[in-house]
Amino acid sequence: MDDCGTILVVDHDDTTRLSAVQVAVRLGYEVCAAENAEVLLERLDGHIPTLAIVEVELPGAVSGLEVLRQLHERFGDDLPVILVSAKRRTPLDRTAGLMLGADDYLTKPVDVGELLARVRRSLRRAAPSNGNSKLKLSPREHEILGLLADGKNQSQIAGELVVSPKTVATHIQHILAKLGVHSRAQAVAAAYREGLVDVDVVAHVLAAEASPQAII
Questions:
Q1: Could you say which of 143, 178, 203, 207 is the most buried, measured as most Cβ atoms within 10 Å of its Cβ?
Q2: DSSP states of 162-215 as a string?
Q3: What pLDDT is recorded for position 193?
């Protein structure tokens, strides 16, 4: 898998799905594509998405809006999700999708050139900026970083936030990548530099890092 991550595509329409896959490949990304939400969610293991293109009117029990919610829960609110709809085409529909957290909203038939431009724009907006790391982390990632700084391990964080340990692990991976570090101690030290934790916390985590029980 490419270090830049994967673009997720879920759309029951073969033409739209193929167009989205072609855009992802043209931009140099790996692709995880599926015709419904259930298949996509089964294929997510091992993939850290950079962007998702999701049909609103997906067949099956899980709608596109539910996929949007689940992706943000699992990978953080910073993951750009582009919604695509064949039926919900009014300004009110688009506004509702954006208010629910979509980065963009397109209606079918989708022009490949426009989709390419929209994907590029979403990727630029999502790219980590240099400098101010406070702006890189989502609210959930800030929360998990704070719990790491408090000395909690992955399982304890999962219990406190009522999510799976796997979800916590994914968030931690994103935190490390966004801060440009490789360990829990380095992440907390970066948080200290941003004024998120105090020096006593950094010392505590450095001590924990040296122990055999360190989780990261």
A1: 178
A2: TS-HHHHHHHHHHHHHHHT-SSHHHHHHHHHHTTSS-HHHHHHHHHHHTSTT--
A3: 63
- Do 14 and 119 fall into the same domain? yes
Mean pLDDT to the nearest integer, 40-54: 83
Distance from C-alpha of 183 to C-alpha of 216, rounded to nearest angstrom: 6
Same domain, 55 and 160: no
Contact 55, 34 (CB under 8 A): no
45/106 same-domain check:
yes
* Residue 194 tokens, joined: 């941003």
CA dihedral for 136, 141, 142, 144, sign (positive or negative): negative
If asked whether residues 25 and 117 sit together in one domain, one would say yes
Q: Which element (helix H / strand E) includes 98?
A: helix 91-99
pTM for the model: 0.60
C-alpha distances in Å from residue 81, one per residue of 49, 51, 150, 202: 10, 6, 32, 35
Same domain, 158 and 201: yes
| Tokens representing residue 64 in the block | 């596109």
